[in-house]
Design a protein that fits this description.
The chain is α+β, with helices and mostly antiparallel strands. Helix content is 37%, strand content 15%. The protein contains 50 helices and 39 strands. A seven-stranded mixed beta sheet has the order 15-16-9-8-7-14-17, with no helix packed on it. Strand 26 and strand 27 form a beta hairpin. The protein is globular. The N and C termini lie far apart (117 Å). The relative contact order is 0.05. This is DNA polymerase. InterPro entries: DNA-dir_DNA_pol_B, DNA-dir_DNA_pol_B_CS, DNA-dir_DNA_pol_B_exonuc, DNA-dir_DNA_pol_B_multi_dom, DNA/RNA_pol_sf, DNA_pol_a_cat_su_N, DNA_pol_B_thumb, DNA_pol_palm_dom_sf.
């Protein structure tokens, strides 16, 4: 041993001072490590800049390892892969507990001289993270020590030792491939240099631990043998992320004293030692200039705690049943279902699915509930032999033939029998039938039937005659090919119904309107081998006519609505960086049994014992293991629950199989999740496809046993359209309730993330786990159990949100009213609801409805039209007629580039009378204006005549009530009755009725939308135009009545409401005025009703659709006040919370009713205080957050580099986030700049936007751009609110914010009025009217002195007893028009200016201003930019007009405006005319003063007229002063 030590010292000496320094550093580290454990909370970072160990090339190290293995081969034990295989990294196994350091190993003398390699060439071991985790979990006992102690220490029980070894090996070697990979030689797994596996962070603060997996030996100085430690001033820093395996250790040698040079003694192994270090102090100036406060969550409000309480039964009435399958229900399951006395099967339909392709095309699958004993079980009804229904429209209407008219008359008068009439009718349509039959035979249709029937048509196709006509009805099986939709013949002009689906025909013809009881007769049950579904029961029906709607009083079974099973799903995923896809690591399911769908459920109902079940499936990460102790946690959880609520799988495929099996056992009717249609189901199906999960398993996600998976589309293509059709087909039979989509329809929130909704709606705080954080949580059993808790909590929150919003009862009511599918209503299909409502109604009236064309068909047709337009084809006219149905869609398509501008005029919006009102204001609103107009004027497809030339339609003259007015009348009456019932109802019945009246209101108000929506099946632009025209006329006539007849002032009006200024301080008197207005307006109409919608005490009216007011409301007879805001910046999402808070404060002050001086002083003081706090870094970081919503995927933005929220979302995606960066998500960001730079740097605003979490992680890199927030966020908001307040100005507000006031000076004049002509039209006197105009400057021909020429009238208006000076006119001005000399030459009698000279100088100056206008200089309106240019940018950004985007974009978001406008030019020329005016000025004078002034003016006119006529001609050439009367006249 002494020899070895001696040789070691020689080798160390030979390596020079650099190696000695590293050895000393290692010894200081050893001394510091032995100092024990302290917990002062530091969170240092360890980084190895000057490595303690030398590195050698990989080839040399591989040779060294091979040699070590050869030397120790006699000791290595490897029982067919189950023993311990030495990696050649530890030596001298004969000495238990003693290991040589790498510097003193026997093989050291044989090493060649090492050459240092760059650190970036190192490749960390693939098993580094797993080994590190295992070593840290095992504590000070290491694997090698366990084997050596088992060999040499015989006092331990052999069985116990073997069990410990087996457990450890099972954890570290889960499969054969893993064991083999652990034997592979890794160049950096030896003791050459500490890698990431050498370091394990024990705390996120100041305490950390170092655990050596390899048998590293550390030399110890004998003087410090008893107390190993570093000096207190030694700093240790850990840099880099440990999980990336590139952490390096840094020990500052200058800060640590050198150890004493003593002899080295026997070395000891340092294992899993925790040490603490003083954190490196951050330098001043490198701290984020905002307060970052950790949110303290109240444990009572923690969502996870709420879920744990519900799971354990705390607070919900006892122990919750957490068994996996519904054992109690399955035990009571009956083998047969209950039937009606006549043998029919009562079936409650919930969902339906149609097979569109393949051999079963046209087969329908109805899913719902049947009663078995006292329970309701799932059932599938297979409906076969569905028939197509196509109508062939004759070229010549049969009813116009005189013979047909006489035949109808004879049948009515019974002169001929109906059979004879039918025979003659068949003969009249024989040509059509023969032609259609030929086409059907060509398509291979073997069986079909045709018959003439009488139907009506009243829609937009001009090639089909409107009214009632005889058509040929064609029926043939759906399994046969469909007739072409554009098929025509010699005897028929069009086909209708060729594209109707089997499901649509079934629902409409069988009159099935949403979830309801059906009577099924002539059915047959299916054997197990013939089943096509996963339902408990399955029956087959050969004819759809065997299914009918059950009457409400037919039996006891159909009187009650069955309950459903609701299952919430949540997935936790991680990102596969190579493929950039989501991989599932855990799936959590929470199930609620017996959920009511006809009434809201209280929390005490659905949380009671026996209602809830849950389970979670989790798998190992690829190539890794579960942390030590996790299996015990799983066992304990399952034992406590009494069943397997936590399942562990080894692979993702096994996880998916287990999940599908458990979902099948639950037999759920409804699947719930937050963004389940946009993420969870998409990931589930894609991963099932990638992992090759058999169809017998993945198809259990729905209720159809499918053999092939449909083609899955890319996720989140279009926001707001729910799940893709492929996903919906995979979950057919189960309803899909996406709380993300539902909350967007029912709530108005800044963000619709689960975290935000849980906080605002459920008052619970949710912990969000990012995908890239998931692997870290697999490092410890505790964190992994937390991950499971978070998954279950998210599923629980989604279910709780569903119950809170009463989604199921509300959507069921909507579906029952409209008659569509419940699943489509849950996906937010408003257009389809109205479509099916009209389909049912028109079918009842025997109308043929228009065909529904897909987007693909429209695009194909439009392309064909464009091609046809360029070809001289003889069939062009026919094609054009056939495409009449596409005309409106084409026009809409043409408008896409112009932000889809409306193709017809909308509602009337009056110009507001801006200002601050302190008397009561009445808001009067028409109830459901557009639906009421439809009823008032009988507007319908069937009543309004549309002309072929596209001219504006007239109001209908028909007295026959149309389908639309009749339908709306029924809905309104139904809602009125429900509201009447609500007055006497209470409890759950009241809630049920309230949901019903809400559904009726939503349906009625959506009726107009289907007429004006170009993609609607019932799109009718003429009807929509007529409705909006009547709306504009009604609003204008109401305004005229209020102002002219009632002598009240209307200050604003918008579409269906007006605001009336009462001028009263007494609310009772103001309300009486409102009643008078209501009475006068309502007596003019039959169906229209206006009502008082609000009373405002004070109001700040800024512009159209932008106002704020103090609204007076009454609750329980007590009035109270609230501030209502409409359209202001402070209610928009793209303003920071800081700007909104200040805007709220200013608004509160303005509407407080205090004096103007006090309000202005308070606002100024608050601005100064806020800007001081911002610059001192005292404002919380959350106040700077700006939010904006993604309307499409981040990668789909063409100008992403100019959109801050898009760049932030793209970075989030790169970092592995799946939620929060998709279509429809609200992206938070903060504008900042890099430390060392300056505010408002040349880098664009978008490039300087960072997510709040990024700023928290990189505090030493970024600073918040305070000037941006002051000038672009706070100042605009406050200046707009204060625009109507006297005593302040934009530059004064800028001064309070510490900004450059010169950049805001031009805002003062703009703030006073947006109309540039207001000063000319409404000014009180000439000085005010021409304020800001430049004076007319004349030059003396003698002395060349320039002087201002005064107005003629101003100079001579005061004569007689009054002196000129009293009017403010200088003596020289007065003398100029007397002598026509310049002031300087007047005394010398020279310098006379002739009239021609005056005219020439006026013309020259006027042309100077005209040239200034035509120079076209543009200036940015941004206060901090002021960019001036003459070039026009054609870039389009947002809603800005072409040519107005600042060239400095994206650094500046301002807009270009003319520096010198046409209004400025006209005003200046008008002022010059005013200077020489000798006519109009006389009319302004009193009669007694006119005579002397007029005499003076007569003398001056010969001198003034040349100049006056010159300037007037120039002014009259300016088009700004002319108005075209044809623009003011409407042709009637």
């Amino acid at each position: 041993m002494a020899d070895e030590d001696g040789s070691s010292r020689k080798r160390r000496a030979a390596r020079g001072p650099e190696s000695n320094a590293r050895s000393q550093a290692l010894e200081r580290l050893k001394a510091r490590l032995s100092g024990g454990r302290r917990s002062d909370g530091a969170a240092p970072q360890i980084r190895l800049e000057n490595p303690i160990y030398d590195t050698i090339p990989e080839e040399e190290y591989n040779a060294l390892v091979a040699k070590r293995r050869d030397q120790a081969r006699s000791f290595i034990v490897d029982d067919d892969g189950l023993g311990y295989g030495d990696e050649g990294e530890e030596e001298d196994w004969s000495k238990a507990g003693f290991n040589l350091s790498s510097d003193e190993s026997d093989g050291e003398s044989e090493k060649p001289k090492k050459k240092k390699e760059p650190s970036q060439n190192k490749r960390p071991s693939s098993s580094a993270s797993s080994l590190s985790a295992a070593a840290a979990m095992m504590g000070p006992q290491r694997l090698s020590s366990m084997f050596t102690s088992a060999v040499f220490k015989k006092n331990r029980d052999d069985k116990v030792s073997e069990r410990i070894v087996d457990d450890v090996l099972a954890e570290f070697a889960p499969d054969e491939s893993d064991r083999l990979s652990r034997r592979k030689v890794q160049p950096n797994s030896s003791s050459i240099k500490p890698s990431a596996e050498s370091v394990r962070v024990a705390s996120s603060h100041q305490k950390f631990a170092i655990a050596k997996v390899d048998a590293e030996s550390v030399r110890v100085n004998k003087d410090n043998e008893s107390n190993l430690g570093l000096e207190k001033n030694c700093e240790v820093e850990l840099n880099g992320s440990l999980e990336n395996g590139d952490a390096e250790m840094v020990v500052e040698p200058n800060d640590c004293p050198s150890p004493s040079n003593g002899d080295l003694v026997e070395e000891k192994v340092v294992k899993d030692v925790e040490m603490e270090a003083k954190p490196v102090e951050k330098k001043e100036g490198f701290i984020l200039n905002a307060k970052i406060s950790e949110e303290v969550v109240d444990p009572k409000l923690c969502a996870t705690a709420g879920w744990q309480a519900a799971r354990s039964g705390a607070g919900v009435g006892g122990e919750v049943n957490v068994a996996g399958p519904k054992d109690a229900l399955l035990n009571q399951q009956h083998s047969e279902f209950n039937l009606e006395p006549e043998g029919s099967l009562p079936f409650y339909i919930i969902d339906a699915y149609e097979e569109y392709y393949g051999a079963n095309m046209g087969t329908l699958y109805l899913f719902g509930k049947v009663k078995t004993g006292n329970l309701y079980q799932s059932c599938c009804i297979v409906v076969k032999n569905m028939q197509r229904c196509v109508y062939a429209i004759p070229c010549r209407p049969l009813h116009s033939i005189e013979e047909m008219i006489e035949l109808e008359k004879d049948v009515q008068e019974s002169r001929i029998s109906p059979a004879d009439f039918c025979k003659k009718l068949q003969d009249a349509t024989s040509d059509i039938k023969n032609e259609i039959a030929k086409h059907l035979v060509d398509l291979g249709v073997s069986s079909f039937s045709m018959a003439p029937v009488k139907r009506k048509y009243a829609f937009e196709r001009l090639d089909i005659p409107s009214g009632e006509n005889y058509v040929v009805k064609i029926n043939y099986p759906f399994k046969d090919p469909a007739l072409p939709v554009d098929l025509r013949g010699e005897s028929f002009c069009a086909l209708l119904g060729a594209r109707s689906s089997a499901l649509e025909l079934f629902l409409v013809k069988r009159k099935i309107k949403g979830p309801s009881w059906l009577q099924v007769s002539n059915f047959s049950t299916c054997s197990a081998s013939q089943r096509v579904s996963w339902c408990k029961f399955e029956v087959t029906v050969d004819s759809p006519k065997d299914i009918r709607v059950s009457s409400s009083s037919s039996s006891k079974i159909t009187r009650e609505i069955p309950s459903v099973v609701v299952t919430a799903i949540n997935l936790k995923t991680t990102i596969n960086e190579k493929q950039n896809i989501n991989e599932i690591v855990s799936a959590s399911v929470v199930c609620c049994n017996m959920v009511k769908i006809d009434t809201p459920m209280l929390a005490s109902e659905w949380k009671k014992p026996g209602m809830l079940t849950h389970f979670t499936v989790i798998r190992k990460l690829d190539g890794n293991i579960f942390p030590m102790g996790f299996n015990k946690e799983v066992t304990d959880r399952n034992i406590k629950a009494g069943s397997h609520v936590l399942c562990v799988e080894s692979s993702e495929r096994a996880l998916l199989n287990r999940l599908m099996l458990e979902l099948h056992k639950l037999d759920s009717d409804v699947l719930v999740g937050h963004n389940i249609s946009g993420f969870d189901l998409d990931v589930l199906l894609h991963r099932s496809q990638a992992c090759r999960v058999p169809s017998s398993m993945w198809s259990k996600l729905g209720r159809l046993n499918r053999s092939t998976m449909p083609k899955l589309e890319r996720r989140s293509k279009t926001f707001g359209f729910g799940a893709d059709p492929a996903i919906m087909s995979c979950v057919a039979g189960r309803l899909l309730c996406d709380t993300y989509l539902c909350s967007r329809d029912l709530l108005k929130e800044v963000s619709y993330s689960l975290t935000h909704l849980a906080k605002t709606q459920l008052n619970q705080s949710r912990k969000e786990v990012a995908p890239h954080d998931v692997p870290k949580m697999f490092q410890a059993a505790k964190s992994l159990m937390e991950l499971i808790e978070y998954g279950e909590t998210d599923a629980w929150l989604a279910m709780e949100l569903m119950f809170y919003l009463s989604v199921l009862p509300l959507t069921r009511q909507l579906t029952n009213i409209s008659g569509n599918l419940w699943g489509k209503t849950l996906q937010g299909a408003r257009a389809q609801r109205v479509e099916y409502l009209l389909l049912h109604e028109f079918h009842k009236k025997k109308y043929i409805v228009p065909d529904k064309f897909s987007n693909y068909a429209k695009e194909t047709k439009l392309t064909k039209r464009r091609v046809t337009h360029g070809v001289d084809d003889g069939n062009f006219d026919d094609t054009d007629i056939n495409d009449a149905n596409y005309h409106n869609d084409a026009s809409e398509s043409d408008h896409k580039k112009s932000k889809k501008a409306a193709s017809y005029a909308g509602g009337l919006v009056l110009e507001p009378k801006k200002g601050l009102y302190d008397k009561y204001i009445l808001l009067l609103d028409f109830n459901s204006l557009y639906p009421s107009i439809i009823q008032e004027y009988n507007i319908c497809f069937t009543t309004v005549e549309r002309s072929s030339d596209g001219s504006f339609p007239r109001l209908p003259s028909s007295k026959t009530i149309g389908v639309l007015p009749e339908l709306l009348k029924k809905l309104v009456k139904w809602r009125r009755d429900v509201k009447t019932w609500m007055k006497t109802a209470s409890g759950l019945k009241l809630q049920q009725l309230d949901i019903q009246q809400q559904a009726l209101k939503l349906t009625a108000n959506s009726m107009y939308g289907c007429l004006g929506f170009s993609n609607s099946r019932f799109y009718a632009k003429p009807l929509a135009e007529l409705i909006t025209l009547q709306g504009r006329e009604i609003l204008q006539s109401t305004v005229d009545l209020v102002q002219n007849n009632l002598n009240l002032e209307v200050i604003y009006g918008d579409t269906d409401s007006i605001m009336v200024y009462s001028g009263l301080d007494d609310i009772a008197k103001a309300t009486s005025i409102a009643k008078k207005v209501i009475h006068e307006v309502n007596k003019k109409y039959r169906c229209l009703e206006i009502d008082l919608d609000g009373v405002y005490k004070r109001m700040l009216l800024l512009k159209k659709k932008k106002y704020a007011a103090v609204k007076v409301q009454v609750k329980d007879g007590t009035p109270y006040e609230v501030i209502e805001r409409k359209g202001l910046d402070i209610v928009r999402r793209d303003w920071s919370l800081l700007a909104k808070d200040l805007g709220d404060f200013c608004l509160t002050q303005i509407l407080s009713g205090g004096s103007c001086e006090d309000v202005i002083e308070s606002i100024h003081n608050s601005l100064m205080k806020v800007q001081e706090e911002m610059r001192n870094g005292q404002v919380p970081l959350e106040k700077y957050v700006i939010t904006k919503t993604l309307t499409k995927p981040p990668e789909a933005y063409p100008d992403a580099k100019n959109q801050p929220h898009v760049l932030v979302a793209q970075r989030l995606k790169q970092q592995g986030y799946t939620s929060g960066c998709s279509v429809g998500d609200t992206i938070p960001y903060i504008i900042c700049y890099e430390q060392g730079g300056s505010s408002g740097s040349a880098t664009g605003i978008a490039q300087r936007a960072r997510h709040p979490d990024e700023l928290k992680r990189e505090q030493e890199t970024w600073l918040i751009d305070i000037d941006y927030y002051l000038s672009q966020q706070i100042h605009p908001v406050v200046s707009r609110l204060c625009a109507s307040i006297q005593g302040t100005s934009p530059e004064r507000l800028a001064d309070c914010l510490g900004l450059d006031t010169s950049k805001f000076q031009h805002k003062s004049s703009e703030a006073s009025s947006d109309d540039p002509t207001s000063s000319l039209l409404f000014a009180g006197d000439d000085e005010e009217r021409y304020q800001g105009c430049e004076s007319l400057v004349l030059s003396c021909p003698s002395c060349s002195v320039s002087f201002d020429c005064p107005p003629v009238f101003k100079s001579i208006c005061l004569l007689g007893n009054e002196k000129p000076a009293s009017s403010g006119v200088e003596e020289s001005d007065y003398n100029f028009w007397r002598k026509l000399c310049c002031p300087k030459c007047f005394e010398n009698g020279v310098g006379r200016i002739s009239p021609a000279m005056i005219a020439n100088q006026v013309k020259r100056q006027a042309e100077k201003f005209v040239l200034m206008y035509y120079r076209g200089s543009l200036m940015c309106d941004d206060e901090t930019c002021k960019h001036t240019t003459r070039s026009v940018s054609f870039r389009l950004v947002g809603d800005s007009e072409r040519g107005t985007v600042c060239p400095s974009y994206p650094r500046c978001n301002g807009h270009l405006n003319r520096k010198y406008t046409e209004a400025d030019l006209y005003k200046q020329l008008s002022y010059f005319c005013h200077v020489f005016d000798t006519v109009c000025c006389i009319e302004k004078m009193e009669a007694k003063s006119r005579i002397p002034i007029e005499k003076e003016l007569i003398k001056l006119r010969p001198v003034v007229d040349p100049a006056a006529s010159t300037i007037q001609k120039i002014r009259d050439r300016c088009a700004f002063g002319w108005v075209k009367l044809q623009d003011l006249v409407v042709t009637i």
